[in-house]
Amino acid sequence: MSTTEPLISNPEPAIANSQPPLAGKTILVTRSAGQSNQFSDRLKREGAMVIEMPTLEIGHPSSWEALDSAIANLNTFDWLILTSANGVEYFFERLGAQGIYTYALANLKIAVVGKKTAAYLKQHGLQADFIPPDFIADSLVENFPEQLAGKKVLFPRVETGGRELLVKQLTAIGAEVVEVAAYESRCPQEISHEALEALQRQQVDIITFASSKTVKNFYQLVEQNGGVSLNGVAIASIGPQTSETCHQLLGKVDLESREYTLEGLTQAIIQWAKPLNIV
User: Can you tell me which residues the record assigns to a coiled coil (predicted)?
Assistant: First the structure.
């Protein structure tokens, strides 16, 4: 098992070079189909060749019943917690389907995890009341701006495979948490031919993982296709939870982002590759 490289924060600007910092590097991106474009574009601008291997398919949950019931009773909740862009998009999609407008949330405080989630919320005309300093759900309870004992919290989330720690933490401090399925993320049935061939021919330098579920689904997909060797392939993780899953299933993590965002992951990859590119 590889030793995790020192965490990277506030990286210095890249040293002037005749080539972009990721020139000559082939990076496999495992984000969901339709959500990888911005991240892939970032990496390409830094000189990388990017191969996309979607390991998540995002869609509707098996039933809207629980979410519809919560939406019908929004006035009974004190807080709405949104931990992902998907949670925001599917919650507001259902809100619109019920003919309910954002003003119905006027008396509801909203907590979000991460700047990207906050940005998606702002697109719907709403400002988050609280964003924890660290871009992970576990930081939310530690830094919450008010006592939650006796408060009722609505938590729209992924239907299966999500972490349970946040709900346990909120419940432990006395909050009444109502979890509702807002969307589902599934493992694709097939791996792209380009990605599988690049892995089998050991033409990939770095594989990026932005969640534990992408690691699990990547592992499942490659195992279904006879497995691949990751010798000489760097494993890039967006944060500690994802890194733990990488260690469990892939046996190593080579670099981990300090800031748990795709921009932070991009900078971590650049820092990791920098010594190899200095002329």
Answer: none
